[in-house]
Amino acid sequence: MSLTNASPSEAAKAAKDASHVLATLSEYARNDALTAIHAGLTAAKQDILAANARDLEAARVAAESGQLSQSLVSRLDLGKKGKWEDMMKGILDVRGLEDPVGKVTLRTKLDDGLELTRVTCPIGVLLIIFEARPEVIANIASLAIKSGNAAILKGGKESTESFIAISKVISAALEKTKVPNGAIQLVTTRDVIPQLLDLDQYIDLVIPRGSNDLVKYIKSNTKIPVLGHADGLCSIFLEQSADPKIVSDVLVDSKTSYPAACNSLETLLVQESALETIFPVAAGNLIAKGVTLRCDAKTKAGLMKKLPSNLAATLKDAQEADFDTEFLSLTLAVKAVADIHEAIAHINTHGSKHTDAILTSSSELAELFMSSVDAAGVYWNASTRFADGMRYGFGTEVGISTNKIHSRGPVGLEGLMIYKYKIRGHGHVTAVYGEGEGKKSFKHEKLPL
User: Fold this and answer.
1) Helices 363-372, 340-350: crossing angle, 10 deg rounding
2) Residue of 244, 250, 335 whose CA lies nearest to 294
3) Torsion angles phi and psi, residue 118, rounded to 5
4) 427 has which bridge partners?
5) What is the C-alpha to C-alpha distance for residues 235 and 321, in angstroms, rounded to an integer?
6) What architecture is the 234-386 domain classified under in CATH?
7) What is the pLDDT of residue 7?
8) For 374-393, how does the pLDDT look when each residue is reduced to its tens digit (9 = 90+)?
9) How many whole angstroms from its chain centre is CA 167?
């Protein structure tokens, strides 16, 4: 990894050149680089956390003056809730995954002596633009190296100290390996995002990690394909037959375990027949965890009858805009629906196609929900917080995609691969094949992989 203040085009060209070398390295060479990165970061932990603490203090001051959001500050803290340990484990997990490069996924005998194969290959050069989240550098570097992709990283100014500290360690580690130094670059030059987004001749995919505004800006200002999501507006439908303990456990985890995450619960849809049975206990548990419930008229009326007066007094009236809002805090929009069909219609209209769940004892309704909801992740009786590359067994992730093509959901190694077709022949030409007299027909025989 190199810390570069080169021009965007120079950095991108260097990454493209390095990608051609990286794509040819053996699995052993790529894994050796991950081992070196893990060892370097382990040795430098205290220095990196000290740099992160300086970023965090400056960010807190900025948040107090309204320049940064509290959710961004939360994402910046590398020492929070085992984030460092998760980052380090992710490197080793990626190293231990099966090599994704050069896997044969199709073999066809076109004719005698003429064979077609389809093999996996790296995308090329990735541009990752991110805010806060200093662990992104290690995550992206690991996934990019393992998958044979080069990567250019551009971070936000709010976490510059952390980025530089981590990057210096990774750069020193890679110097001892066969991975080209230009394969992973952190761009330190300010105000270069527009120029980077113009470099479609070098950069093959943009992956944004940050606020809605950042993602929307990138999607609107580049010809390069973008992999990511603008919103994490996750919903849960509470159906009348759900187990009360499952309801409380899943709702509390989905909303309170990390409210600033994109897979945190933002909208709760409650079946009308559950408003005065299952829902009040779960609502009380959420309120006890500090959650503010913004309720529509029906859900508020049901809770006012069942909750103790001190808890009922905390309820807020929902506005229509709340059901299109990613709060990223301990605020939850709550709405009553007549049945599963109304719940599905609401989610498909207001959701962001990220992750949605149903709480029910009916397998039939669960399968209907999971088939009908248009989202990258659909769950039954499980927290939305499972939408995560590490939890899916991907080692780590470069982000979560709500795209309808290529990768969807948490994007790990597989999402960073494409494929190429190879034909091996013996002087074969197309002119001899066809339907007319004297023409040959293709055999098109499927061969074992």
Assistant:
1) 20
2) 335
3) -115, 125
4) none
5) 15
6) 3-Layer(aba) Sandwich (3.40)
7) 83
8) 999 999 999 999 999 989 99
9) 21
